[in-house]
Design goal:
- By secondary structure, the chain is mainly beta.
- The chain has one domain (about 5-55).
- The chain has one helix and four strands; from the N terminus they run H-E-E-E-E.
- A hairpin with a 4-residue loop joins strand 2 and strand 3 (about 40-45).
Length: about 55
């Protein structure tokens, strides 16, 4: 999935927990959506692929 502005706006919040969507063109970059609808941009870094929040 390509994470464009329009695509991110169309993403629905899950009923429970959180759902993460990753960009196909930029490995390790994604957006995480909580059940309340909060969208947080994330990056997976390092050899252990540790998740870091970039911002909302």
């Amino acid at each position: 999935m390509s994470l464009t502005d329009a695509q991110i706006k169309r993403l629905k919040a899950p009923e429970k927990g959180q759902k993460t969507y990753f960009d196909d063109a930029l490995p390790g970059f994604g957006v995480r959506i909580s059940q309340g609808g909060t969208k947080t941009f994330i990056a997976l870094c390092g050899p252990k692929r540790k998740r870091h929040s970039i911002g909302r």
